User: Which sequence fits this backbone?
DNA sequence: ATTCATATACTACCATGGCAGTATGTCAAC
DNA sequence: GTTGACATACTGCCATGGTAGTATATGAAT
């Protein structure tokens, strides 16, 4: 598990002073700062706005965001717990490399949990859930037709989350969401493909149909097939961007 | 947690009480303090040395342990992430209640993952793993015969951990270990029962036999039965100690 | 050109003080 | 007895300074 030594950061002129220009959006001092910093950094990493091996300095980040080092540090610790950054004491903190092994294990964890969730819901779920999930499917179709990729990703996330919530498994969703970050990062390796979105949408429909029919094995199988499709495309993307993916 | 110093903390043993307080064992200032505080508090909570709704004050803990509030605070945040404590800003931090719902969901997560691991290993594992796991089983039997309960719990943990390691799923084990904390806490609700340990040992044997035979479904079934047994006894214990268990 | 000692500029980790927000005790008004 | 205002004693959250440890640059010696 010995992380590879973080090679020296290619001096891409980080000397550009932070005159508050790249301030994005100011931190709201009335709400917990640590959480805001965490959310912002997590988004930056998962969307590849920050690339692997890029350094995250407590001090520099605190200056850029206009907050103290303490909440920044707490955010970095949380990100390290989720495997998005590597902290080397007294050396520095760096965006973790995209390791194919980690992506595959994230897929394993997610599939194990979500298949079990799907099987459970196929064994019984509320009418309200079915109507809501079908409404979500309808919105997904609209998003695909409108080529609204980001919206589709949001609906996709809500789709999977609602399964856990209907099953009363909120902690499970937290685990899934945490490991999903590794796969989300791979998604951003290339621009989304419209045809691929249609495949995903049809798989979503198959899952809902199996759940509604009460077919446990079919629900489990459909969910597994769906998640493996996500992994398959992730691998394909990895092949195309070997400069950013390890292993 | 990637990239943090390996902080070995000698397990329970000599607990020399220093003057005037339950200092247990001094913090080693040469190793990361936050990690040591975390380990200590986690153990105190899971062994019910600290009971639900007991307060954990940053300031008080820092005085008791002879460290500053910062590493204590970071330890509390980690414990909150794992659901062992509840932090109410500006009000206080308290040991989380044992909620039966949380225990059941921890069981769900653990079963989903470990069943998948068992199925994977039944599909193929190394000879070295089989010899090592059988060696562990042998030690388990010795521990049961010697009525060495704590030793059995350690071997049990190593048993399950080695499954994940053999499958190359270290992150999965971290997830399992994290959710397992909720169940560990229930285990300490009563003294261990020798007959129960024999049941667990036999279930362990059945799992290993199925894996060695390459019977995927049997391996999965044995693992599921084993983990459900653990939950069943947990529920029984909860009934006996409703004063400490919610819901 | 290589090696080795040392100065320097970082890093994350920890200690400590100040702050806003919350619970509680006290006491006057009804 | 009940209510409400206010002082007080906490809490966790954040800001900031100091320290040990690490990487790199510099330069003398080989």
Assistant:
């Amino acid at each position: 598990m010995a992380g590879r030594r973080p090679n020296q950061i290619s001096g891409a002129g980080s000397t550009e002073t932070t005159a508050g220009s790249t301030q994005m959006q100011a931190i709201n001092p009335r709400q917990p700062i640590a959480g805001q910093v965490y959310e912002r950094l997590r988004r930056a990493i998962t969307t590849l706005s920050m690339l692997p091996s890029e350094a995250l300095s407590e001090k520099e980040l605190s200056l850029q965001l206009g907050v103290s080092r303490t909440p920044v540090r707490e955010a970095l610790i949380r990100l390290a717990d989720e495997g998005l950054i590597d902290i080397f004491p007294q050396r520095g903190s760096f965006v973790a490399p995209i390791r194919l092994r980690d992506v595959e294990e994230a897929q394993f964890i997610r599939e194990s949990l979500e298949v079990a969730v799907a099987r459970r819901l196929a064994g019984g779920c509320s009418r309200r859930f079915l109507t809501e999930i079908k409404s979500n499917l309808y919105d997904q179709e609209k998003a695909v037709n409108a080529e609204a990729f980001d919206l589709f990703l949001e609906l996709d996330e809500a789709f999977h989350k609602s399964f856990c919530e209907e099953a009363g498994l909120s902690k499970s969703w937290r685990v899934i969401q945490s490991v999903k970050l590794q796969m989300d990062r791979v998604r951003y390796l290339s621009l989304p493909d419209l045809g691929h979105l249609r495949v995903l949408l049809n798989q979503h429909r198959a899952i809902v149909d199996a759940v509604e029919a009460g077919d446990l094995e079919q629900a489990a199988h459909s969910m597994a097939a769906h998640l493996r499709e996500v992994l398959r495309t992730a691998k394909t993307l990895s092949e195309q961007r070997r400069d950013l993916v390890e292993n």
Summary: Residues 57-59, 69, 73, 76, 87-93 of chain B lie near DNA strand D (CB under 10 Å from a C1').
